[in-house]
Amino acid sequence: MPAPELVDTFGRFHDNLRISVTDRCNIRCFYCMPETEVEFVPRAEVLSFEEIERFARIAARLGVKKLRLTGGEPLLRKDLPVLVKKLSAIDGIEDLAMTTNGVTLASHAQALYDAGLRRINIHLDTLDRERFREITRRDDFHHVMEGIHACLRIGYGPIKINAVAVKDLVEPDIVPLARFGREHGIEVRYIEFMPLDAQGLWLRNKVLLQSEMLEMLAEGIGPLDEIPPQDVRAPATEYHFRDGIGRVGFISSVSRPFCLNCNRLRITADGKLRYCLFAIEETDVKTALRDGSSEEQIVELIRSTVARKWIGHEINTTQFVPPPRPMYSIGG
Ligand code: SAM
Ligand code: SF4
Q1: CA 162, CA 106: separation in Å to the nearest integer?
Q2: Cβ–Cβ under 8 Å, residues 168 and 128
Q3: On the CB side of 198, how many CA atoms lie within 13 Å of its CA?
Q4: Which of 117, 120, 169, 327, CA to CA, is 20 to 30 A from 95?
Q5: What are the b/e assignments for 313-328, b being 16+ CB within 10 Å?
């Protein structure tokens, strides 16, 4: 096998690409988007399916094996199954997944499955309709539940739930979500609130920490044991319940940063390549995809971005500067 090509100066190799297909969204989670006056990228600036496919093909040639579609809300992108089909047919791509808020999933799940999608993360912070409305500023809880049940019926696997952990808000949801996951064979992934919201609301003391959630789960359900990671570069720390029923995961960017094992690159809906969620700089690949640049020129843009990758984010230092783009415009 040829040596992986996308190795940065800290020896991390990059085989995972997250593709944001749109920055638009049909809900307004307060830790991601502003409530009103959201500025979206003009449609003409958003990469076409052909441009995304070409970029993914070049990335695959450089060793990328895993793709994840995200946004914004990826299901707002018309004809998404067409893109899923194109991407899953790329030589070298072993894994294609999607992260969605699930609001319109019930009506898209079958077509996406037929196009080859199997792995799905559905974003849901609470089983309480009122709190859902408070968090997302929309009354779509029942739509998300319909989406989850559609995926269960169709046979998606694994299905995961992404739950953002904000202190003094979702404490009552931690245990019920895990119970729901145990009942349906879904892994709940609790994601510590990160400083990526559009309104600058993040404060360290608003982060519900992994250690606090573990205590709640042990008390409310029963003892848990950490699962040794199959892939040390996976961002989640996973636990199973000692009674053998179900598992949960934690993405703890604040309390347990995993930068030293990071293998991810991201491309935004408007074609900017980023080496980190929190990066300040980014590389414009859209222009190269549109101005007739050769494959070798695009390879060089990817390589040079990886070569500039920093050692990690500095959330836990006083020097931390949030990135100029909020979460919805990067692609989580
Ligand atoms: N709209 C889709 C969704 O909500 O899943 C995909 C895009 S969204 C930006 C991707 C994920 O980012 C969400 O599932 C949510 O869990 C996570 N997220 C958004 N804002 C966050 C924040 N400030 N801190 C931690 N996670 C966040
Ligand atoms: Fe939309 Fe996802 Fe951001 Fe919520 S987290 S506002 S669903 S992009």
Answers
A1: 17
A2: no
A3: 18
A4: 327
A5: bebeeeeeebbebbbb
Alpha-helix residue ranges (DSSP H) falling in the chain: 49-61, 80-88, 105-114, 129-136, 141-154, 171-184, 210-220, 286-290, 295-307, 327-330
Q: How many residues in total does the chain contain? A: 332
pLDDT in tens, 124-139: 999 999 999 999 999 9
Rounded to the nearest angstrom, the distance between the alpha carbon of 122 and the centre of ligand 1 is 10
pLDDT on residue 234 = 87
User: Please, what are the domains in the chain?
Assistant: 16-330 (3.20.20.70)
Token pair for residue 96?
């294609």
Among candidates 246, 229, 270, 259, which has minimal Cα distance to 158? 246
Specify the 3-state DSSP secondary structure of 105.
helix
> How far, in Å, is the centroid of ligand 2 from the Cα of 25?
6
pLDDT digits (tens, 9 = 90+) for 243-296: 999 999 999 999 988 888 999 999 999 999 999 999 999 999 999 999 999 999
